TrEMBL record:
One of its GO terms (molecular function) is carboxy-lyase activity. It comes from Symbiodinium natans. InterPro entries: ACMSD, Metal_Hydrolase. This is OrsB protein. GO terms for cellular component: cytosol. It comes from the Eukaryota. Belongs to the metallo-dependent hydrolases superfamily.
Length: 266
């Protein structure tokens, strides 16, 4: 079975996307080109022009989310997780947004950290309900934080229960109504797979990808650590950002491309 691969709609590989996609309500951010976005410094209180910056993969996390996911965050994360429990907290609106502005970041796209999407148990439907609750809380708080700062500086990518393609369609549709700018998905999923890697390229995922294409919204493919074999068994530290993230993400893109070819049957 060949899986359709819609390049424009499916995958965004940690690249800068256009303001028109992510912040259409920001009239002060004028799109001048696809790759380079310039804005009037009037928006920043100064004369002239500068490059506009959009921060991607700005992760947030909730302690209650980690409780249901595979693995644990590093110990030093817990204090920050406490701070991120409530995005609508006045400190978030007044500090995080203000720091972003000070460093020339005009718009931040938040996402619930990718590691938490891998669930310990998805057998009874509880995890699907949890994802729905977390997404609703997430976008409600983004809206509250924007209201507190007086300007829409924050947007968000939703998370999806991709072990269940049909539930993912329903949740993506719901999140788009809540203001989601797209979805952030893991490079692979091992929820209830017995350790096998699910790359979302089998026939069951055709309706999901068709919905994504129709929505016109991007999917952000979030890196995961490379499989521990060969080179990575000797140098495990390289499984993540120094090298493994890039290898794993590149191979996943190739999986999409090859699965869409009639020469390969999945």
């Amino acid at each position: 079975m060949a899986v359709a691969f819609h390049v424009g709609a499916l995958v965004m590989l940690q690249a800068m996307l256009t303001i028109s996609t992510f912040a259409p309500e920001r009239e002060d951010l004028n799109l001048l080109s696809v790759k380079t976005v310039q804005v009037s410094h009037a928006a920043n209180g100064a004369a002239g022009s500068s490059i506009c910056k959009i921060a991607l993969e700005e992760h947030v996390g909730f302690k209650r989310v980690w409780k249901y996911s595979n693995g644990e965050p590093p110990v030093e994360w817990w204090q920050n997780l406490e701070d991120l429990e409530d995005l609508a907290d006045r400190r978030i609106a007044e500090t995080r947004v203000k720091v972003a502005q000070n460093y020339g970041v005009d718009f931040m796209i938040l996402s619930i950290t990718g590691s938490t999407q891998d669930m310990k148990d998805v057998s009874d439907g509880t995890s699907v309900k949890k994802f729905k609750q977390w997404n609703r809380k997430f976008f409600k708080q983004i809206s509250a934080a924007n209201d507190a700062s007086g300007k829409p500086h924050l947007g968000g990518f939703c998370i999806l229960p991709l072990w269940d393609p049909q539930a993912s369609i329903s949740q993506f549709a719901d999140c788009l109504k809540l203001g989601s700018l797209g979805a952030l998905i893991n490079g692979y999923d091992t929820s209830n797979t017995g350790g096998d890697f699910n790359y979302y390229i089998t026939k069951e995922y055709d309706p999901f990808w068709a919905f994504v294409e129709k929505s016109g919204k991007p999917i952000y493919l979030h890196p995961r650590e490379a499989e521990s074999k060969g080179f990575f068994t000797q140098f495990p530290e390289m499984r993540v950002s120094p090298w493994g993230f890039h290898v794993e993400t590149a191979e996943h893109v190739l999986r999409f491309i090859l699965a869409s070819s009639t020469s390969f049957q999945i």
